[in-house]
Amino acid sequence: MHFKFPNKHSAVLISLLSLGVVSQAATNEPIQPIKAPTDINAGQAELGKKLYFDPRLSKSGYISCNSCHNLSMGGTDNITSSIGDQWQQGPINAPTVLNASLNLAQFWDGRAEDLKAQAGGPIANPKEMASNHTLAIEVLKSIPQYVVEFKQVFNSDQITIDQVTTAIAEFEKTLVTPGSRFDQWLEGDKTALNDTELAGYELFKSSGCTACHNGPAVGGSMYQKVGLIKPYQTNNPALGRFDVTGNEADKNVFKVPTLRNIELTYPYFHDGAIKTLSEAVNTMGEIQLGKTFNATENAQIVAFLKTLTGEQPQITLPILPPSNDNTPQPQPFN
Amino acid sequence: MHFKFPNKHSAVLISLLSLGVVSQAATNEPIQPIKAPTDINAGQAELGKKLYFDPRLSKSGYISCNSCHNLSMGGTDNITSSIGDQWQQGPINAPTVLNASLNLAQFWDGRAEDLKAQAGGPIANPKEMASNHTLAIEVLKSIPQYVVEFKQVFNSDQITIDQVTTAIAEFEKTLVTPGSRFDQWLEGDKTALNDTELAGYELFKSSGCTACHNGPAVGGSMYQKVGLIKPYQTNNPALGRFDVTGNEADKNVFKVPTLRNIELTYPYFHDGAIKTLSEAVNTMGEIQLGKTFNATENAQIVAFLKTLTGEQPQITLPILPPSNDNTPQPQPFN
Ligand code: HEC
Ligand code: HEC
Ligand code: HEC
Ligand code: HEC
Ligand SMILES: [Ca+2]
Ligand SMILES: [Ca+2]
User: Fold this and answer.
1) In what residue span(s) does the Cytochrome c domain sit (chains A, B) (predicted)?
2) What's the whole-number average pLDDT of chain B?
3) DSSP secondary structure of B51-75
């Protein structure tokens, strides 16, 4: 190691890097195949899907979870920072919801423990959906078909925000993407990758990328400093874990993002400033590992990363139950 | 007839009203069942579905056809007037795309001849998607999977706006909603409607509603003055056909909207000012026919109208092909 690790997260990194690759039970590879979700409560997930697509959870009646985490586009909005209520610019790039259930915690800074804890946030965030939980529940309660479905699913006469976030989280658990070419290769089909892609994978491991991007999600399992070797230049004021813990050592420490479906989740980095995968790979090499890749190596790693695109969830668009005469009106322009 | 018809559209109305009901070949009813679409070019429709859901046809990368004509919500946005680029307020209520193929022409004022002529409009409308056709084509051309799919579908090396609108229109032709309870009744299942609904239908016919709302779409087949008997009070400046023809007689003459799926396409009227179906029915009675319905009659007609909700198109969310490194960047905030 020819560089100094500046903080405690790097201590984890040292031990990981010193293993060479992170070997895991199932295979000798640092990346494991994604498994299809099990133990899904089908009723909750189906209701959760409706809620995920329902813009009536927003003040304007226009913005749903799917507006920013578009399941036609890798579970993201593919813009630098999201568009929220009144076209407000969001503070940070929207991460994908695909495989988010595999993350150790939610948000770039990990401030939400799990999907359920996360799901209440955007509804009431004035820069996102700009509603509030009381209003959102009032809307749902006014819609007869929702009342019936909540009752069926939760066996209760009340509709609560706890049920809403439970259902959305259950739906999100279904949003995993098994079956990528890389997973086919991991599972024994040695023809699934071509030579360039395999060379890219070897480089990804030998360069040390797998120290941080590993496990089934190829990320999502730890926090790490962005700019370990060289500071990352950004105008984005987010300071990552520091914003949660207040510890100096947590400055610029972010959740390592999943690289699953990375071909679909451009632009890259928490500030969304990196437009191409090629640039993301070079930047990572430079700021995290002090490595410069030549054009061939870069292309190989990019080719490998594109094999991480899995089968996208097949979603039948939900048909939302209509509002009732007494449903609170959406307020798009006031 | 105890009222004077002020213009030539009313001449059509006179002859229709004097027939009592508009009898048609298939049944003796003024409304015919909706037929499942035939003669769909599957390749074009599948491509058109992608384009319909693709926000990259907008300047911001955020707005697609489905943003304003949400197929989870009856093909509308369920807000008074739509939200366009930069959260601009649209000029008029967004009509449903469901069964729009049955309309004699497109838009409230009929200014687009058909679905294909319509589809180019919103992409380049600065208040809607705010892109332009050159840029939209440049975006599509930069995306390898689109290039392949256009070539397969249109057997041409070029991507043109003509192909884009052809494909979108073909997809829209699939968006019909057969199978409503009313259609089941029309097709002979006399148990499909209850007594209240049947009473509502009888009133709908005997009051003269079917003079304008008839045919398979229960509308969409003619232009009529809004406010035949009594002016319709609105702050909306749209003047309907007059804006197209410049003829005085066309002031406040609008395409008669379809009443298919009317339960889903609130709010009502071209200005979106009418929030409930009950209010829409009373207003129509008053301003078009000089009739006042009592509460029972109103409830019966509303109950009938709700039987016009058909099977909603089952849409599998398209997975959009990712942008390429050279795809023009979306411009949400500048
Ligand atoms: C206006 C845009 C917007 C809307 C609407 C929105 N999100 Fe997000 N979402 C974001 C952004 C931006 C972040 C990252 C915020 C951060 O990390 O501080 C995020 C983060 C997340 C995460 C964490 C993913 C990860 O890897 O950390 C999940 C899960 C998520 N959103 C789900 C949802 C759900 C469920 C809804 C609807 C209830 C929703 N989002 C609505 C923009 C949005
Ligand atoms: C020390 C930990 C660490 C190492 C080593 C590392 N990464 Fe990362 N990686 C991160 C973190 C943290 C981020 C989030 C950066 C940000 O958003 O600002 C990230 C982001 C990325 C992204 C963008 C993900 C997204 O969705 O925006 C890519 C691609 C990536 N890394 C690839 C690599 C490659 C290739 C290597 C090896 C050359 C590598 N990483 C090495 C921690 C690491
Ligand atoms: C920003 C909102 C918005 C977007 C985006 C939008 N529309 Fe519309 N659409 C409207 C409004 C508002 C009208 C009514 C305009 C008028 O009649 O003058 C309309 C009218 C229509 C009509 C006519 C229906 C009828 O009964 O007359 C069709 C069909 C249609 N749109 C299809 C599309 C397609 C296809 C796209 C994408 C290429 C699209 N729309 C994008 C708001 C939108
Ligand atoms: C003379 C023609 C005519 C007659 C008769 C008529 N309508 Fe209409 N109807 C229209 C027109 C034109 C509109 C569009 C009004 C507007 O948008 O401003 C309309 C709109 C509606 C709407 C709202 C549709 C929407 O999507 O916004 C409903 C509901 C409706 N009519 C029901 C009825 C009923 C019930 C009757 C009989 C009591 C009736 N109409 C009689 C022409 C007519
Ligand atoms: Ca991203
Ligand atoms: Ca409407």
Assistant:
1) 43-151, 195-309
2) 92
3) HHH-GGGSSSS---HHHHSBTTTTT
